[in-house]
Amino acid sequence: MAAADGGETAGEPRLRPPSLFMMLAEARSIFELNSSLLFSPLLLRAPKGDGHPVLALPGFLASDLSMAPMRRYLKELGYDTYAWNMGRNLGGVASKRGALRDLLQRIHETTGRKVSVIGWSLGGIYARDLALQMPDLVRSVITLGSPFTSDVRATNATRLYEALSGEGINDNPEIQKAIAGDLPVPTTSIYSRTDGIVNWHTCHLNPSETAENIEVYLASHVGLGVNPAALWAVADRLAQAEGEFKQFDRSGPFAIAYAPRENAQS
């Protein structure tokens, strides 16, 4: 597997982006949205929130509208949800750092509480970077299909990202290496091996006592943020008490949708 800085490990090929077939299959995301609506009564039986603030960061080319279903769901469960309010996400991990720090600081000052940060795809990279920069303000990080480790060029959006953001994927190797490493806060990476945009290996973190991977079977990249099994996992992770962490219990109502822990972390 490629090294964390985007280079190649000796004797091993670079990771490849998902195939054209997998990318075209992303159209199934509409079924994931419809499923979450169908299962909404069940989803609302997830553990209730304690009112702490949750910041939702959209993926590349997406806006706050993409995270609206998740924010509504979490608000129903009792969380104080926040959008990023920066329009469409056109990328720029380095260039967005200052604005995101200011946003996190404002939410913390407004609420007086640590903030859980959820990021979908590129938004998850921002979330991990925020936790590294301002760990005292971040309660936990949850990423959804975020390519933050290994050969991060193994996506079907790399060239477009570089063109629109003005940043090369490997322009900031120190930042990239730090984001790929361990975080100082509880961390969950939710991903799917059937992701048609990013190679799932790039979403796989090093599991520890405060970090875990949750693999969702058959989920798409575009639909991961509205997938009912992913939504349940997000709600379950957020419901943990501040300063506490235990591994995700896959025996809940969507148990059939999750890979076993030993497979998800191998």
Automatic annotation (TrEMBL):
GO biological process: lipid catabolic process
Gene3D superfamilies per UniProt: alpha/beta hydrolase
Domain of life: Bacteria
InterPro entries: AB_hydrolase_fold (IPR029058), Lipase_EstA/Esterase_EstB (IPR002918)
Pfam family, one: Lipase_2
Family annotation (SUPFAM superfamilies): alpha/beta-Hydrolases
One function term, GO molecular function aspect: hydrolase activity
Name this protein carries in UniProt: Lipase (Class 2)
Species whose genome carries this gene: Bradyrhizobium lablabi
